[in-house]
Amino acid sequence: MKFRYYSLLAFFLSLPTMTMAQSGSPSPSIELPNPAGLETVNDLLARIINWLYIISAPVITIIVIWAAFLMLTANDNKNQFEQGKKMIKNAAIGAGVIICASGLVFIIKEFFGVNP
């Protein structure tokens, strides 16, 4: 039963190529639109890094303000103070990674000899 199903499926999937081979017409060309308007991978990486810069600035600012609020309202609660310190440290590490992203892309392109 499965063999019959797969043979019928293969037959029907190969029908368009069989009919085109018999008609002698050239294969149709399909043109897909480029919705992002990007031509190269470099353009894609540049757009992703710019997007990261735009999104990360307010997010990091909110995290640092929230962490400072936690630290200021900690009173004698050492866990809350440590949580605020940890949040600020992680936000600084994240900001550093995002800032270094464009430099890392440049270093990789130079290493492999890719010209834009």
Mind explaining what this structure looks like?
The chain has 116 residues and is mainly alpha-helical. The protein is built from 3 helices and no strands. Helix 2 (41-72) packs antiparallel against helix 3. The protein is elongated, with a radius of gyration of 28 Å.
Question: Can you describe this structure in just a few lines?
Answer:
By secondary structure, the chain is mainly alpha-helical. 77% of the residues lie in helices and 0% in strands.
Main features:
116 residues, mainly alpha
Largest sheet: none
On the 0 to 100 scale, the average pLDDT is 82
Radius of gyration based on Cα positions: 28 Å
The percentage of residues in β strands lies in under 5%
Helix residue percentage: over 70%
Number of helices: 3
Unreliable residue stretches:
none
Task: Write down the secondary-structure element order.
Answer: HHH
Supply the helix-strand structural class: mainly alpha
**Shape annotation:** elongated
Counted beta strands: 0
How far do the termini sit from each other?
Answer: 55 Å
Write the layout of secondary structure elements.
Layout lengths: L1 H22 L17 H32 L5 H35 L4
